[in-house]
Write a structure and sequence with these properties.
The structure is a single chain. This protein has 176 residues and is mainly α. Helix content is 40%, strand content 9%. It has six helices and five strands. The protein has helices at residues 16-26, 47-56, 60-78, 107-116, 143-150, 163-175, and strands at 30-32, 35-36, 84-85, 100-104, 152-155. The strands form two sheets. It has a three-stranded antiparallel sheet. Strands 1-2 form a two-stranded antiparallel ribbon. β1 (30-32) and β2 (35-36) form a beta hairpin. α3 (60-78) runs parallel beside α6 (163-175). The longest helix has 19 residues, at 60-78.
Amino acid sequence: MLDAFGDAGAITTSSFETYEKIKLLRNYGSRIKYYNKVKGLNSRLDELQARLLSVKLKYLDEDNRRRSEVASFYSARLRNLRWIELPVEAAESEHVWHIFSALVEQPDELAQYLLKHGIETMRHYPVPPHKQEAFAELAINLPKSEYIHSHTISLPIYPTMEDAQLNYICDKILKY
């Protein structure tokens, strides 16, 4: 995973309606994170961010390797818990572990418990694509997808995590 420190761009208009539409389109069609009103795109890269990414590119393999180690650490420490379903890397692939999402029955309660212990989690993609307003024309029911999206929690994962941090997180989850 290669990420920048931010993103930017500029468009000028005297039309408030055009301004609102452009803001919506540039951010995946979303005014509220993970809730897509229309089909949009991610269009916010500027020259400064491009330069930053060109520097970070040198460390990409090392960072991806460390994220993989973090994912393996979580998997090894938490694999015997019956109430949590951990992600699995397919044998024929190499995951970069942008996120480490686990399936649990009560993700909000786990998140609150961990936050009380100074551990931030995230609920990535809480609304499945087929339930986004942007895809209302699909009008389909996918109960397994809906269950997964509503029962997933992402644990912290980044390349500078230290083993002590990982042990602390896993210890708290094991005591939950």
